[in-house]
Amino acid sequence: GSGSNLCLCTDSAGMPVHLYRSSPDDALAVAVSSLKEGEFLSPWIDAVEGKDGRWQLPQYPCEVKSLPDEDPKKKRWTPGEYDAGVDNTDLDPNNNIREWGGQKMWAGDKPPRDWDPQAYPENIRALMQVPHMPGQPVKEMFARMKALDPRPFQDKYFEEILRDMVPEWPALLRHANYAESFGVHSEEAPAEWTEHVEELVPALYPTPRPDTVTICVGLAGCDGSEHSLMIDRAGSEYDSLELLYAKDQEGKLIQILPFPNHGMTATVFHTYSFIPPKGTSSITPFACFKIRGVWRGSSVEWNPDVGSEDMQWFVDMSPEMRTQLADKSKLQAKSKSQIASLRYPKGQKAKPVLWPENSWEGNAAKARTWDAKLG
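RE: above sequence
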């Protein structure tokens, strides 16, 4: 179909979902209603770039089409913004003005005696304050999104930068460790893949943002008629990238993303950007291929004072967790002292259990004794 494109990014796979509507001024409710669980609608889909190079959030017409021109609701609005006392009002069956409040967390008209809103995080308390807006579902949705996290409304590229590892990172790390157990290739030690080096060695490069780094592997912008990458190579015709990840100065995983293969057409370039955790002084890129194995790229120095707020859990990790994630040969002095101070409980011998003679366990023990005698 024709029309303006709405790009929505899913949190799970990171793949764009494209929806269409006839024009940017059309209400977004129809497009939003086709969203699936886990999909994110960016407030910047119709953003415009100003003369100063800065992007401005778009403005949309009122979603309620039948309002007269003098109605205070009938004005253009910006995602995340609303007018309290205006957008959250409508008429009741008696034609009286009715004002809607925020979301309540209890059943019935009155809160329970032990109700304490301070028990909830600050962003959840802000979400509960956002009122219902009759006839304006998209405006209400954006207002709730901004209450939960205002950062995506302040930065056009917020959702394109990873600030924390994906929830399944422990399983991906096990996958990477298993692949690395067969050896790690590099530009200096490519094994039998000498002609493939430029396609397999990952790289890191800084971005205009002082806190963001980009990791990539492959050849960007190459053409099949100009480069042999699109020609079948013996032994790697069906190879594909599985993981693209990075480690810090102690060999700890700081970011990882899977790249599942969904078809016969080879993807020749993979990349993403992320904010490393604080305390990172060096970053090393890795790429794991299904057939050609794991490849290590060149390390880059990083400012340890700059990092992601969402990865504070990584900065504050326990010595036990550091022992599991770090390379012991690369541990820094502070980490070594923390790990050396660990005291593990002494192991205790398992005491024998005397089962009753007529119990299932007792009969099973007798059976094992008889089997041993017969054997």
